[in-house]
Amino acid sequence: MRHTIYLLAAASTVALATPAFAKTGDPVEISEGVTLDPMMNFRLRYEGVDQDNAAGDANAVTARLRAGLELKADGFFVMAEGEGTLAIGTHYNDTIPGNGVEPYSVVADPDNVELNRVAIGYKKGGYGVTVGRQRIILDNARFVGNVGWRQNEQTFDAVRGQAKIGPISLDATYSNSQRTIFGVDSPNEHFDGDIMLLNGGAKSGPVNFKAFAYLIDYDTRIAFSSQTYGLLANGSVPLGAGKVDFLLSYAHQSSYRSNPTTYSAVYMNAELGGSIAGFSLKAGFEELGSDGGVAAFQTPLATLHAFNGWADTFLTTPTSGLRDYYVSAGKSFKLKALPGLKAGVTYHKFKSDVGGFDYGEEWDAVLGFKLGSIGLLAKYANYDADTFGVDTEKFWLQAEYSF
User: Fold this and answer.
1) pLDDT digits (tens, 9 = 90+) for 51-91
2) Cα→Cα distances 225→185, 193, 239, Å
3) Phi, psi at residue 193, to the nearest 5°?
4) Is-contact 95 182, C-beta < 8 A?
5) Mean pLDDT, the chain, as a whole number?
6) Which residue among 99, 183, 207, 222 has the highest number of C-beta atoms inside a 10 angstrom radius?
């Protein structure tokens, strides 16, 4: 009943807020060849966390507004975007030290007002360069992403160049600062250093091929300094009236520059999916390897919530490594009363890479649909611990509007 009340409150609050904004985000032409594009996103969320430890149950209600403008003229652009997160109540640990809310479980959405993105650049004819604070998502965000699930977005102070030459795509970034999700009042607001992100690929028939190199040399977060080189192939192959989706990825990581620990570890991911009788099905295996239990493969720039379970137990890979065996099923429904209705469920079995540990298992479930221009979402995660972490349940209700 409590969760239903939060969902109704979220929907009504967003509905009341939206009339102040235009219903479409179409660019406005202010002179010949010059447009001004407004950007806005409002998200209201309830997150509940129940863990089998001494921390109190977290009940977080947060509201996030992100708004900005982008001016474009003949391929050139300049844009700026602000972001503000408001905590409605303090019954959760927002990760900010010393503010008196630590007795509760963590919900990493602190109060925050910041300049989320500000950049200038040029994009035209398959070529582009962007300079400034920007959003960077590479491939499926397994190695580099914007952590879009959290209220405060991850961005990068960077210079990025992109090119597309026929079937070949090239992407190169240098960043000196990773702007984290933890907000302006956190000691972990940003992690500075030298970050090189190199990504290139080509498309051949139904298959996309990628090669990448990610070099991270942190100034202070030195245990996560690493060099990673890898390959990715994914695509879809027609099969009868449907198709088979696949993904294969391999990477090798080792310590880099300031890291005081010498290690070497591998990453592997294999997925196979398809559709049967209107259901989408997927099975996969992901390994973040360990170097004999000394250190393990890490992805500190990733959108981590999207991988290894929504309970977020494995945001940092254990030193014994991680093997994730998972299966999922989903279905889209065509209902006039609930347009865009989708449901899904995923099961994970977690083991170590070395040592033979059974870490635990997790069930995740999601349900989403739209009411007019408002997207509504209910989501649940249940991690059952064996030898790693603690039993954890998380529940979310969310309403979102954007243009």
Assistant:
1) 999 999 999 999 999 999 999 999 999 999 999 999 998 89
2) 24, 9, 43
3) 160, -160
4) yes
5) 91
6) 183
Whether the Cβ atoms of residue 399 and residue 376 lie closer than 8 Å to each other: yes
Residue type for 159, please? V
Terminal Cα distance for the chain, rounded: 32
Separate counts of helices (H) and strands (E) for the chain: 1, 19
R_g (Cα) of the chain, nearest Å: 22
pLDDT (0 to 100) of residue 278: 81
Indicate left, alpha or beta for 167 from its phi (over 0: left) and psi (-120 to 50: alpha): alpha
Q: 384 to each of 135, 359, 393, how far by Cα in Å?
A: 34, 9, 9
The helix (run of H) or strand (run of E) holding residue 272 is: strand 264-276
- The DSSP annotation for 68-87 comes to EEEEEETTEEEEEEEEEEEE
Domains defined along the chain, listed by start: 2-402 (2.40.160.10)
- The string of pLDDT tens digits covering residues 240-251 is 777 899 999 999
Give me the residues paired with residue 257 across strands. Answer: none
Closest by alpha carbon to 171, among 204, 197, 208, 207? Answer: 197
**pTM of the prediction?**
0.90
> What's the token pair of residue 294?
């000394």
